[in-house]
Design a protein that fits this description.
- The complex is a heterodimer of chains A (212) and B (246).
- Chain A has 9 helices and no strands.
- In chain A, α2 crosses α5, α2 packs antiparallel against α7 and α7 packs antiparallel against α9.
- The radius of gyration of chain A is 20 Å and the shape is elongated.
- With 246 residues, chain B is α/β, with parallel strands linked by helices.
- In chain B, a hairpin with a 2-residue loop joins β4 and β5.
- Chain B is globular and about 55 Å long.
- The two termini of chain B are 29 Å apart.
- The chains are: A mainly alpha (212), B alpha/beta (246).
- At the A-B interface, α6 and α7 of A face α2 and α4 of B.
């Protein structure tokens, strides 16, 4: 164990730098997925006829094996190629479903008596969304973001396969050289990141929870 | 009774296919008057109410509100001038009691001092001391207290017309009695006309100046309790009011 500790210490600069890259990959993907998923989820809640096909499509995309998706994206112009940009695109694709689905469910989960009151008091649709529906749906939306981020941390390790950097670099190098210490140097910080994000977002969720 | 604040003339309303919910529905509510709309469930009471604040629009006939056809009103502006109380209150669960009461004044852009003075006065009127209740959330209130907040919220911007949909329907009998009695006291201080929907004829006779009995989409008779008992318009009405017959 102490041997492993020494190994990590010796490579601390690299581990730290790759962890930083990893966080950036996941954070950038999450930000984009939120920017797309929340508004799209809201509009799906308004259009039940569209909700089924769109959520079904997002579900199907989710089922594509991640390594294959990374590979498929490489030859695609503009969003594809080798590097972090392609990885972020793939991560966005995977993060979108939980955020989309939870936003949709969160908005539909608002008590109809409450939305009727909002209409009856003379809120515009925009006011109703901003003042009533989004705040009430927020804990559910946040739970979706939490799932997306935790899954994203794991998926981002695979992004190293297309040259996107991050902790996957250590894991791939460890696998190639059959060096379990290198694998752990990538896997342990990645697991710690996932747990930290899960815990942090869970704490925010709990704080928002009792408002209902 | 002054000129009608709200007037329905020969209204027809259907929901897609199926029979008309309202067919030949006519009724008027004068300034300051309380009118109760009573009838068996499914008779179209709530539909009629929602035509008044344009949550619904009629297919035939005319609704006139504040002297103008409903369609000429901007729906949003109109709703802010009409108080609306629904069963169970429909309070915003993420807002405090005060924020709930100040909802419409806030939408109208009142400044904070004016909003606060108004919400303090209304909370006091409905028997919820502001210092004890203003900061609480709806979930921590009893059903009766929530309904009081709902009434205060409806009155916040001083609307000339208040619509109440089964306002006391979710309360236990004791709380219900108390609210009915207090309603009469509050009513004396508002200057609003009230259209109240209820399935409870006793409540209707108690609260309203005039009662309209609705059945199968049209008003069978409008009048006071005495008029109903003395001269019921038809067999349905006679049967409906029979428990009040001497």
């Amino acid at each position: 164990m102490s041997e492993l500790g020494a190994f990590f210490w010796q490579r601390r600069a690299e581990i730290l730098a790759l962890t930083g890259e990893h966080v950036l990959l996941v954070a950038a993907a999450a930000a984009i997925a939120i920017a797309i998923g929340v508004p799209l989820g809201v509009s799906l809640a308004r259009r039940p006829a569209l909700a089924r096909p769109v959520l079904g499509f997002a579900n199907a995309v989710q089922a594509i094996p991640s390594l294959a998706l990374f590979g498929f994206l490489i030859p695609v112009p503009l969003i594809g190629g080798i590097g972090a940009r392609t990885a972020i695109v793939a991560l966005v694709v995977y993060s979108l479903l939980p955020i989309l689905r939870n936003t949709h469910a969160g908005i539909l989960g608002v008590d109809p008596a409450v939305t009727e009151a909002a209409d009856g008091l003379g809120m515009t649709r925009r006011e109703r969304l901003r003042l009533v529906e989004l705040p009430l749906a927020f804990p559910v939306v946040l739970a979706g973001i939490r799932v997306a981020v935790v899954v994203g941390v794991g998926l981002a390790t695979i992004a190293a396969a297309i040259g996107a950097g991050g902790l996957g670099v250590l894991i791939y190098r460890g696998v190639a050289t059959v060096d379990h210490r290198l694998i752990l140097a990538g896997a342990l910080p990645a697991a710690a990141l996932a747990l930290a994000f899960d815990f942090g977002l869970g704490a925010v969720e709990r704080r928002m929870g009792p408002r209902r | 009774m002054t000129a009608p604040i709200l007037e329905y003339v020969g209204i027809r309303k259907t929901f897609g296919v199926g029979p008309a919910v309202l067919d030949g529905f006519s009724l008027s509510v004068g300034g300051g008057e309380t009118v109760a709309l009573v009838g068996p469930s499914g008779c179209g009471k709530t539909t009629a109410l929602k035509l008044a604040n344009r949550l619904l629009d009629a297919e035939g006939g005319a609704v006139r509100i504040f002297g103008r056809p409903a369609a000429e009103h901007d729906a949003i502006a109109l709703r802010r001038r009409i108080g609306y109380v629904i069963q169970e209150g429909g309070l915003f669960p993420h807002w405090t009691v005060r924020q709930n009461v100040e909802a419409v004044p806030r939408l109208l852009g009142w400044d904070e001092a004016r909003r606060r003075a108004r919400s303090d006065a209304l909370l006091a009127m409905v028997g919820l001391a502001p210092e004890a209740f203003a900061g609480r959330r709806p979930a921590s209130l009893s059903g009766g207290q929530r309904q009081r907040v709902g009434v205060a919220r409806a009155l916040a911007a001083g609307p000339p017309l208040v619509l109440m949909d089964e306002p006391f329907g979710a309360l236990d009998p004791i709380a219900r009695r108390a609210m009915q009695k207090e309603f009469l006291e509050w009513k004396a201080r508002w200057e609003a006309a009230v259209l109240i929907v209820t399935h409870d004829l006793r409540e209707a006779f108690l609260l309203a100046d005039r009662v309209a009995v609705l059945q199968a989409g049209r008003v069978r008779q409008v009048g006071t309790r005495d008029e109903f008992l003395r001269a019921p318009a038809d067999e349905f009405v006679r049967e409906f009011v029979s428990e009040f017959a001497p």
